[in-house]
Amino acid sequence: MQAAAAKSPDNSRELTPRAIITGICLGAILTPCNVYAGLKIGWSFNMSITALLLGFLLWRLLARAGARHPWAILESNISQTTASSAASIISGGLVAPIPALALVSGLVLAPGPLMAWVFAVSFLGVWVAWYLRTPLLYRSGLAYPAGTVTAETMLDLFAEGAVAMRRVKVLLSAATLSAGLKGVDGLLWTIPRWSPGVLPGKLGFAVDPSLLLTGFGAIIGLRAGLSLLAGALLAWAGLAPWLLDSGRVLAEPGGASLFVPLVEWLLWPGVALMVAATISNLLARMIASRRPGGRGEPTGAPADTFRVARALAFSAAALLVIVLEVTLFGIGPWAALLSIPMAFFLAAVVGRVVGETGIPPIGAVGKLSQLGFAVIAPAQATTNLMTANVAGGAAGQTADLLNDFKAGMLVGATPQRQVVAQCFGIATGSVVGSLVYLALIPDPKGMLLTAQWPAPAVATWKAVAEVLLGGLASIPASALLAAALAAVLGTLLGVLEAVLAPALLRFLPSASALGLAFVIPASTSLGLFYGALLAYLLARLFRKWSAAYLVAGAAGLVAGESLMGVLLAALSMAA
């Protein structure tokens, strides 16, 4: 990674009006793509690099047209922070719990209340991220692949000299390759997904031609990659066939994929593993005596002069969420109050997992929140869905802002100014995302879960809410036993990760990656592993080239497929 651009003459400009306005405009353009993709395929895009490149291109063109001041790297960081937070607003519930609530109870929120709700749960996540910034960014040394790639792209775009230009060429070449492959697969010819057999293919063991996964895998490292591979083999090659053969999971014959029925069982041990590891790791770091220069020492964490304002802002966000839970959905005050610590802890889990793997398991932790409130408020579907919505919305913005903090840390940005940009972004996303959702789905009961709008995330949240109407007893006993065993393993791994020396840590499996592999398709875990393995081999065989260009190439693979994915979503919306 190049040195941060703190010595750049443009570094005096950061939180400028044009940076915020650019981010707002880009966020307003990119948010509909994620709303559409979420309702169609249950998946969304991290828009950081897309917004970064679009903003850079716009101001490069304006500079040629006579703009007075050149576009600065820290302005670019503020712009992409604003835009990416707007685009990630769908984690506030627009493509999962809010439509699921409409299907279960018939409640469709008017534009004003919907905007207020989505903003409130996202605003809570901003302040959770600020509290987690020091332990997860400065003390843990997590990679935060999306943030790292964004920073690398920024540094390459704004650097000068022959080496920098070669890095840009590597980035652009990799981006062209991944965008071209994605375009061919989406527009011209569906690339075959090779698998070793019919059943393995249905279980997800297929080669996914996603170079975006390869790029992320190159960033997360071999330890996380091997842990994802181990988790996928344990969950999808070991437990999944046993669940089918024993009749514990029933699947429709002839289906193309067995992911949906199996993940409803596998998510419980997977989430338990991630949650237990995260909480035990954070507690162990708090109580363990820190060795000089050891893993417990903060690595350059700045002094927090924002404490009073942070506490007031977090309290205001929590109060706003609680008031809206009670007034909009009729949730009991105690259940509403308990949703805040639940959201904080689950957002911490998501923040840690996304720091290691680049993938935020928002849906999975939402299910854990649903399980918790099935015990606290049994047989109350609205409480079950919307308290989990608090956890999901907070977790989504926490993950996005921690990635932005990582990018900002690498380019010399000011975290407080990034928080301001994030707030502008969620305000933009709340308005635009809510209006787009209401325009696309005016009649949830008549339009959702159809061929036109399959909304897989909505189907999952609705199904879990209906199953949990019977409380904890609705979860299969075998899944609860597996979750208990996974929690014990996660606790052990979390404590060991906090106390082991760095030389030994590389031999310890990553609990976050192991658990994540239970709740994502096996093909995704394999794609990330391939990227991690490729990066490891390149670093061993071509040390000098890898040191100079490997991260730039990985950034290009992510950027190219991300841009093409957004373009394909936009074309689908226009069709």
Describe the structure in your own words.
The protein is mainly α and 575 residues long. The chain has one domain. It has 23 helices and no strands. Helix 1 packs across helix 23. 55% of the residues are buried.
Give the radius of gyration: 22 Å
**Overall pLDDT:** 84
**pLDDT under 50 segments (min length 5)?**
1-9, 289-299
Q: Which structural class do the helices and strands define?
A: mainly alpha
Bin the helical content.
over 70%
Approximate strand percentage: under 5%
Count of strand segments: 0
End-to-end Cα distance, whole Å, is 41 Å
Question: Could you give the order of the helices and strands?
Answer: HHHHHHHHHHHHHHHHHHHHHHH
The 3D shape can be described as: globular
Number of domains: 1
Count the helices. How many? 23
Major sheet description: none
Spell out the blueprint of helices and strands.
Blueprint (H helix, E strand, L loop, with lengths): L16 H25 L6 H17 L8 H15 L9 H9 L5 H29 L5 H14 L3 H27 L9 H5 L8 H10 L1 H24 L13 H29 L19 H23 L3 H25 L4 H15 L4 H31 L3 H26 L3 H4 L8 H12 L9 H23 L2 H4 L5 H9 L2 H20 L1 H32 L1
Helix pairs in contact: 1-3, 1-16, 1-23, 2-3, 2-6, 3-15, 3-16, 4-15, 4-18, 5-12, 5-13, 5-15, 5-16, 6-9, 6-15, 6-23, 7-23, 9-22, 9-23, 10-21, 10-22, 11-13, 11-14, 11-19, 11-21, 12-13, 13-14, 13-15, 14-15, 14-18, 15-16, 15-18, 22-23
